[in-house]
Amino acid sequence: MSERKPYRSDLTDGQSALIEPVLTAWKKRHRSVNGHQGRYSMWEIVNSILYQSRTGCQWAPLPNDLPPKSATYYYFGAWRDDGTDRQIHELLHCQVRERNRRLEDPTQVILDPQGVRVVTGGPAVTAGKDAAKRVPGRKRGLAVDVLGLVIAVTVLGAGVHGNAAGITLLDQVAVAPGGPVSKALVDPGFKNQVVMHGTALGIDVEIVQRNPEERGFVPQPKRWRVEQTFGILILHRRLVRDYEYRPASSASRVYWAMTHVIARRLTDTNTLTWRDPRVAGA
């Protein structure tokens, strides 16, 4: 680790140790021809990605004591394209499930899409407008387990029906590492098309209906977990809107944000809120 003053988004030594096996193995597979180890450590690259995720800053204004845009974006893109971001997330995901006395691999998931606005000037070809919610942008779909941990992510244009997000998520869940998922809970926004697709994959898709006698917001059993996860993700300002040119980058941002959350849980590290008195003088 460098001698600079740490940012609150930095990984601690204990958190770095959790992902060390994946990054060390990646570095061994990508040795420079001339033996050069690179100017920046892998941990500082990760800290740079997490800083941007948490604060929502643009690429160019990254702090001068973190790796610059050129280096950070290179590794962000490389890890996005070869699945390293998901491999790191999967490693920690299994550990936190075992810590909560759950099987390493889930058998039940909850699916839900969320409309997010894209930044002004974003590519129209990968965006759209949600006719129901009237949100111009993209549709971010999640599949989470009963602990609210992310199993799969899909990012589509907001004009695409929720069924498309549900079908894509089911396809990802069906081939996810580990044991088979046998049950998926969805809200009434999903139609029979998703149920039939789940049946073809061997997944029982249950549409959870709301009690018509209930008034106001009432959390649905188990289904509230996915809403909680959406709320946690929004604490990472880069995810408040969709700032990414490529949908794949948007999905990668979700995995990095959840990796940060899980690493804190595994090391019993509390996240200081922006209103915490200890943060005021930071």
Would you write up a description of this structure?
- Strands 1, 2, 3, 4, 5 and 6 form a 6-stranded mixed beta sheet that branches.
- The mean pLDDT is 86.
- By secondary structure, this protein is of the alpha/beta class.
- It is globular, with a radius of gyration of 19 Å.
- Helix content is 42%, strand content 14%.
- The protein has a domain at 105-212 and 220-245: Nucleotidyltransferase, domain 5.
Radius of gyration: 19 Å
As a percent range, the share of strand residues is 5-15%
Low-confidence stretches: none
SSE string, helix = H, strand = E?
Answer: HHHHEEEEHEHEHHH
Query: Taking all residues together, what is the mean pLDDT?
Result: 86
Quick rundown:
The protein has nine helices and six strands, in the order ααααββββαβαβααα. It has 282 residues and is α/β, with parallel strands linked by helices.
Entry keywords:
alpha/beta, globular, Nucleotidyltransferase, domain 5, 14% strand, 6 strands, six-stranded mixed β-sheet, 282 residues
SSE topology:
Elements: H1 13-29, H2 42-55, H3 69-82, H4 84-99, E1 108-117, E2 128-130, E3 135-144, E4 150-157, H5 162-174, E5 183-186, H6 192-201, E6 204-207, H7 224-234, H8 247-266, H9 277-280
Parallel strand pairs: 1-5, 5-6
Antiparallel strand pairs: 1-3, 2-3, 3-4
